[in-house]
Amino acid sequence: MKNRSPVTRSFNKDSSFRVGFDLFLISFLILFLELAAIRWFPAHALYLTFFTNVVLLACFLGMSVGCLAASHRRNYLRWTPLILVVGMTTAHIVEITSGQFVQNGIDRPSPEVVFFGNAYRMPDLFRYPVPVEVMGGFFFVVIALCFIGMGQELGRALNRWPNRVQAYTINITGSIVGIVLFGACSWLHLSPFWWFGLAAVGLAYFYFVSPVHRVRAKFMVLGPVLGLLLLSIVALASYRIIYNDFQGQRESRQIWSPYNRIDFKPYDLSLSVNLMFHQSMVSRNDKYPAYALPHLLNRDAGRPPFAEVMIIGAGSGNDVSRALQWGAKHIDAVEIDPAIYRLGTQYHPDHPYQDPRVEVHLDDGRNFLRASQRKYDLVIYALVDSLVLHSGYSNIRLESYLFTRQTFEDVKRHLKPDGTFVVYNYFREGWLISRLQKSLDEVFGAGNPLVLTLPYQKVMEPDADTADKFTVFFAGDTAALRNAFTQQPEYLLRDDQAPGPNSPNGFMQPARFEQVSAQDQQSSHWQKFGLATVNQPAEGLRVATDDWPFFYVRKPMMPSLSLRGILIMAGLALLLIFLFAPRRTEDQRAELRLGSHSLNLQMFFLGAGFMLIETKAVVTMALLFGSTWVVNSIVFFAVLVMILIANLWTLKSKVTRLWPYYLGLLAALALNTIIPLDFFLGMNRTAQVLGACLLVFAPVMFAGVIFAASFKRTAEPDRAFGFNIAGAMMGGLAENSSMLLGFQYVVVVAILFYTLSALGLFRSRSSPPLIDGAAVVPET
Coil, strand or helix: which one is 678? Predict the structure, then answer.
């Protein structure tokens, strides 16, 4: 007799619409909840930002394990709300308790990589009683467990649809809708209450509506419990607002911008970003001198006021206010986060953004530098310092491409012949100051940049802790300022008055200062500073470039903390796969002997390579068009659309041989290795878009056809999909090699993965014949 395939039997029992809708909905739900988790968890547990891709890889692992467990009789989806509640509750506990461990000025060794911003009022997470690696591993497991149930339902839904490529097409379509909808939530600045509320509605469908999951005998008990857990998820998403209100604190607002979680305190006009103190709105009448320092020194060096000004990282408007005070005629204020700009518009005491001389650009700084043709008297990097990863797909940060040599060259092109470039920040580590000095030397000429610090330090050593030093760099036309310091090495600044156009000339004060007795000098309201000498480390420093934009990594390397994180995540992943992978009987292995392998190496390495080319797409487009959330959303959308096109091509054509597509894929990747990242810079916008998209997305197209054709032939779609996602997780771990190799040559790792995938295909045994895309098991 002839055995009918389990796929065929399952499909005959369910209507095609119901099966297709379930597959679409679970695909949408996975992608939407994945994006929500990537944004929510690191904003409450800062430990997760120590390890690249930890939330993304946990989601991938959960999906992979769930797909592998699709044949299990137990339904893991019912545990998703409970595990999610546990994870979110723990994240809130970590957030609350981390504030108890504050930096106290004790010196610590110079780190290999700088993770966080200004040390002022910052929690020192290395002092937390639970080791960072343990905390990261805990959240990695919890988030993975959250996605196992959804991955299991995805695997079952794929099994119920007879045509593999059609099923994969529905999966991709649901994922596209998930990206678009989450992008809309970000566009509208909706809070996590709405993210997780929508996810709860999707989960509720599978618990209470879908006939595949609804178990009437248990519904009376399970239904209310699941309902309470779903409500708990939504409540926890907005818990921080309730916590602020009931802790006796004054009014505090929580805002979720497209980039950051922002906690704003109207009573002191301060705001924190992702739990890190970010900035305070300081009036021009305040005594704090930093924002006025470029204008003050420019005047005292005998130069006219800056008329045309560009401010990158304008934030809430402090630098804009000072430039207006000192007579700027036009200001281009560039700020990437629209929520911070709106807060400045509403609350800044000087109301700088309401001035008609100010033109606001909600854009990435590098992107604006490329798009603008204007020349400026002054370009300022105003505390450009996010120090959190921009997405879950790569090691780049919002400001990564602002500190590359190529960007400094862009700044130089925007300066007038007598223009000045100013960069200031609390750079935390001496080697960061050394790297910036070397970068500016290469672009503006050795000896051109000037450096000074508040409080004054004559020599800056690369291994020094400089977290309390406000460091200012001047580059461009610095001759007048250098001559002023040559004539009078010491500059005096009043610390009891707000610096302004009527402040005394600091170069004129030292002679009078020397006439005052030592006792009076100690009690006076003057602070003294001069130019600083920046020493370079003996081993040398690599300048950040577009290919290696890791300004905050001391040298090309994989930091030891990252390596430990990789080992922990890999070990936990193997453990979960071992625990949840199905155990095949001898009969099952014999029945499937022509259709599968215990390890599907082809699918595994397809996933690993694809993760890296997707990372390359994100990085290239961020370089060309800016590190904005719109650009990244478009990239993810475009990648899925290319996969959808590849699926349609596979459905319409009979792809019988895969080696031509493998050759096309490897050739396209080789071009991505040869052609530098900045090759398209300077071209007109049409040529730039077409050329970059063709180069970046051609490998996606070839890889998509290979996957669709291979997936079409598999007898076990759940296991094939699970191995593919597991491979994507390995690719995510391999992305850390970009800190060693650079993004240009991380593509070489992708070439290696795809070569191994091709070898896995050609060494495999023949797949079973196909009828209308469905696998047929031989007669028994």
Answer: coil
Residue 162 gets which letter from DSSP?
S
Pairwise CA distance, residues 265 & 284, whole Å: 20
* Closest residue by Cα to residue 547 from 747, 748, 743: 743
331 vs 258, 374, 459, CA distance in Å?
Answer: 25, 11, 34
CB 491, CB 299: distance < 8 Å:
no
What was the pLDDT predicted at 3? 40
**What is the reported pLDDT for 611?**
85
Which positions ≥6 away from 765 have C-beta within 8 Å? 594, 597
Which parts of 504-617 are beta strand (E)? 526-529, 533-534
> Do residues 702 and 663 touch, judged by C-beta distance below 8 A?
no
Q: What is the pLDDT of residues 652-706, one digit of tens each?
A: 887 778 889 999 999 999 998 888 777 776 677 677 778 888 888 899 999 999 9
At position 486, the amino acid (one-letter code) is T
**Backbone φ/ψ region at 463: left (φ over 0), alpha (ψ -120 to 50), beta:** alpha
Taking a C-beta distance cutoff of 8 angstroms, is the pair 27, 154 a contact? yes
DSSP string, 401-417: GGSSHHHHHHHHHHEEE
Number of H helices, E strands in the chain: 27, 17
By C-alpha distance, which of 31, 37, 34, 71 is closest to 152?
71
Tell me the chain's radius of gyration from C-alpha atoms: 29
* DSSP, residue by residue, 437-491: HHHHHHHH-TT--EEEEES--SEE-TTSEEEEEEEEEEEES-HHHHHHHHH---E
pLDDT in tens, 538-580: 888 899 998 888 888 888 888 777 788 888 888 888 888 888 8
Residues 6+ apart with CB under 8 A from 279: 270, 271, 315, 316, 318, 383
Q: What is the Cα–Cα distance from 326 to 316, expressed in whole angstroms?
A: 18
Going from the C-alpha of 65 to that of each of 80, 231, 766, the distances in angstroms are 14, 26, 26
Please, are residues 481 and 498 in contact by the beta-carbon 8 Å criterion?
no
Looking up tokens 């989806």 gives 77
572 by DSSP, 3-state: which? helix
Closest C-alpha among 251, 281, 254 to residue 267: 251
**For residue 361, what are the β-bridge partners?**
334
Angle ∠(445,450,454) on CA atoms, nearest 5: 155
* pTM, to two decimals: 0.83
* Cβ contact 237:195 at 8 Å: yes
Alpha-carbon torsion angle 411, 414, 416, 417, nearest 10:
60
Rounded to an integer, the average pLDDT of 78-106 is: 74
Cβ(761)–Cβ(600) under 8 Å?
Answer: no
Instruction: Give pLDDT tens digits for 528-548.
Output: 888 999 999 988 889 999 888
Phi, psi of 101 (to 5 degrees): -115, 90
Residue type, position 483, single letter:
N
DSSP character at residue 715:
S
Question: Over the stretch 54-80, which tens digit does the pLDDT of each residue have?
Answer: 888 888 889 888 888 888 888 888 889
Q: What secondary structure letter does DSSP report for 211? A: T
- Which of the 8 DSSP states describes residue 3? P
Handedness of CA 740, 743, 748, 751 (dihedral sign): positive
Whole-angstrom Cα distance, residue 41 to residue 49? Answer: 10
Structural tokens at position 124: 């020192």
> Would you say 290 and 454 are in contact if contact means Cβ atoms under 8 Å apart?
yes
Report whether 345 contacts 353 (CB < 8 A).
yes
The dihedral of CA 164, 166, 167, 172: what is its sign? Answer: positive
In DSSP notation, 331-350 reads EEEE-S-HHHHHHHHHH-TT
